[in-house]
């Protein structure tokens, strides 16, 4: 069953503290001339009104608030240097790269495949390097197999299959590159996971040729088996709340409800800021040429107008860099954790289903005098199953929280650095 071991995750700051919400850094994280100031940590305390945002968590159980030392001078460089992280040794033996997207057009459909290159020193692999091509449906298959094999572990999210309204076209270079990065992150998060990385389906996904993978897919559970699993899940959800759910998992559920609200709001606001920034950029692009043309008809003001045009051009370049930082780092990360909230709520429900099955057997035993030995044996097995599920989820929850805090802190620090460079330019 699921192992509780851990492998080195992202490096933590010196002293072993988990990354938390830093109120001094937060005030400068997302800043525009027209937009609000945003900050993020493990859970952000945001008011209901989008334009009125707090930059620290009110719940110290969800985030640790650190402050700057009064002896350190408060300057842009010293602020950022406070948040540089020590690089820890990477004890990895599996390296995966997703690249080289390629279009395929058939009489039935058009789709994109991606090259997946794997390099490893693990003994269970027959070779040290593999190269295969995979399409999006193959990634979906892998995710479903991981969820089936490890129902109470946190499986990393995949990018959505369909494009949201107003986003880029499905086969545009921008969309394909965005998806490639997300698929690359998906596989590497699995590779870094202490349990998922040794999953047999994961190994087959990385090593099997297209026809071998297709053959392996057909060996999965049949329709009746899948229907049976669905019926059991529905029946479990109909029974209502779990009676004997440990307090820890109730706290997890409450945490995720709050986290979901905050991260969705952050995602919405970040997209709005990016949209405003793009509109500002497009307007500025028009002003430079206008001043250049104007200088040709105003001899006395020619040099001044040309200087203004040059200044506007430099502002355009700086704004474009900042927009690139938002679109390449902040927006994808926020959206990934929006997807993580759905995954975690699903994991908690599956844990509750196992708990509910145990509760129903205990109730049945209390109401039946006969078949007591049979029920006792079933209850013993279910108790072991619940314990394994609880231990697996607790270990994965701690790991996910640590990674989430690291991702949020490092990403918002990166945004702050980009903002500082922007205003300096």
From TrEMBL:
CDD domains: PX_SNX7
PROSITE patterns, sorted: PX (PS50195)
Source taxon at top rank: Eukaryota
One of the record's GO cellular component terms: early endosome
Xref: Pfam families: PX (PF00787)
Any one GO biological process: protein transport
Signal peptide: none
Location of region: Disordered: 1-23
Keywords, comma-separated and alphabetical: Coiled coil, Protein transport, Transport
UniProt GO MF annotations: phosphatidylinositol binding
Sections of the chain in a coiled coil: 365-392
Domain PX: 92-213
Gene3D superfamilies: Arfaptin homology (AH) domain/BAR domain, Phox-like domain
SMART domains (alphabetical): PX (SM00312)
InterPro entries: AH/BAR_dom_sf (IPR027267), PX_dom (IPR001683), PX_dom_sf (IPR036871), PX_SNX7 (IPR042130)
Similarity-based family: Belongs to the sorting nexin family.
Protein name: SNX7 protein
Species whose genome carries this gene: Sinosuthora webbiana
